[in-house]
Amino acid sequence: MNANPQTDPLIGRLVDGRYRVRGRIARGGMATVYVATDLRLERRVALKVMHGHLSDDTVFQNRFIQEARSAARLADPHVVNVFDQGQDGEMAYLVMEYLPGITLRELLREQKRLTLPQTITIMDAILSGLSAAHRAGIVHRDVKPENVLLAEDGRIKIGDFGLARATSANTATGQMLLGTIAYLAPELVTRGTADARSDIYALGIMLYEMLSGEQPYKGEQPMQIAYQHATHSVPRPSVKNAGVPEQLDELVLWATERSPEDRPTDAREMLERLREIEKDLGVFPQVVRSTPAGATVVVDDSLDSDEVTRVMPGTFTAPSVTTEIDNATRLRRRSHRNSVKGGWLLAVVLVLAAAAGGLGWWFGSGPGSLVAVPAVEGMSFDSAQSLLADSALVARRSDVHSLEVPAGEAIGTKPGTGTFLDRDTTVTVEISAGPATADLPKLQDRTSAEVETLLKDNSIQVSTTKKYFTSFAADRIVRVYVTQAGSAEPVECTDGCSVPQGSTAELRVSLGPLPDVTGKTGDEATDILEKAGMRVEEDREYSSSVADDLVIRVEDRPGGGSWQQGETLTIVVSNGPQPVEVPNVVGETVRTAVDRLQAAGFKVNPNIEDAEIPLGGRYWDVYRVRSMTPDGGSLQRPGTTISLTPQFQPFG
Question: N or C, which terminus of the chain has less Cβ within 10 Å?
Answer without folding.
Answer: C
